[in-house]
Amino acid sequence: MKKIYFIFALGLLLVSCKNESKSSETIKENGITATKTVGDLNTTTFSGMFLYLENDNAAVLQTVGSKIYGVVVDEKMKELNEQCKQFKTKEEDMVPVVIRGVKKPNPLKDAWKEVIEITEILSVQKPNGQDGTIIIKNNQ
């Protein structure tokens, strides 16, 4: 009987140890500061200017270091676009955002090399007027 109680207590101990706290590390790459959460290695925090062109069904994020990523057009991206609309006067206006997402290779040819699939919207900010409108002419 003591063995059963011991095994039960050991099982409870193992289950309670599964709730590890996540820590994060800051990574600087090409002038871009990103935060990776340890334990969720695929998720990265991105800060930059977001643009979605509904007619082209295309979205991009230009990060602080001027690196441009395609953004996967899905429900989370559409939610971000809805939050950005309050700050846009024209469809081509870019809005400063901070998002968390998964960076992966773009399956489409003749497009941005990497895309971000948004997992969490951290903030949407009002443009400061100096950001201007950026029109992207090619996909490189």
Description of the molecule:
- It is a single chain.
- The chain is an alpha+beta fold and 140 residues long.
- Helix content is 19%, strand content 41%.
- The chain contains two helices and seven strands; from the N terminus they run αβββββαββ.
- It has a five-stranded mixed barrel.
- It starts with a helix and ends in a 16-residue tail after the last strand.
Strand segment tally: 7
Corresponding CATH architecture = Beta Barrel
> What is the averaged pLDDT score?
75
Helix content: 10-25%
User: Strand-residue fraction?
Assistant: 35-45%
Secondary structure: elements and pairs:
Layout: H1 2-17, E1 24-29, E2 32-37, E3 40-53, E4 58-63, E5 68-71, H2 75-84, E6 95-105, E7 114-124
Parallel strand pairs: 5-7
Antiparallel strand pairs: 1-2, 2-3, 3-4, 3-6, 4-5, 6-7
Highlighted features:
140 residues, alpha+beta, disordered N terminus, disordered C terminus
Short description:
This protein has 140 residues and is of the alpha+beta class.
